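User: Show me a protein chain along with its predicted structure.
Assistant: Here is one chain, sequence first, then structure tokens.
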Amino acid sequence: MEQMAHAAQGLMAVLARLMMVAVFLVSTLGSKVPRFTETAMMMQSQGIPNPRLMLFGAIGLILIGSLSLAAGAWTRMGAGFLAIFLAAATFYFHDFWMFANPADREAQVIHFMKNLAICGGLFGLMAFGGGPWSVDGWIEARREEAEAGGGAARGSGGQQKRAA
């Protein structure tokens, strides 16, 4: 029963990470990268300073964070990178409080709340990691195995080598 729960947790964690990554990669590879100049001009119109440099940085955060989440390697750091990007993008582009037209304001509230939910998922990954089916999970399992059983024998063998 415990193995089944572990497998279900692993599968759900992988799916969660990949679904999260899909949102960022589709947006970046489908729009930001191929329309770099247009995106930078739009960022400038929103008052973002040095938009080309900021866009380059945003693409870097997204790609590094997405690769990290997809593999489950340094998951907490990757989720943090994506959360930083998302917080800045939400503040600059979904500032619903600046819209007078109720329909425009409502559309921006929806985008703001969607980003808030995504950020909540990223915070969950920062809190709990990538799950058992991730590089991080594999490393943690090996560390626990070493501490539980063979860690003392390996450690003393290493000390004997140094002493010799």
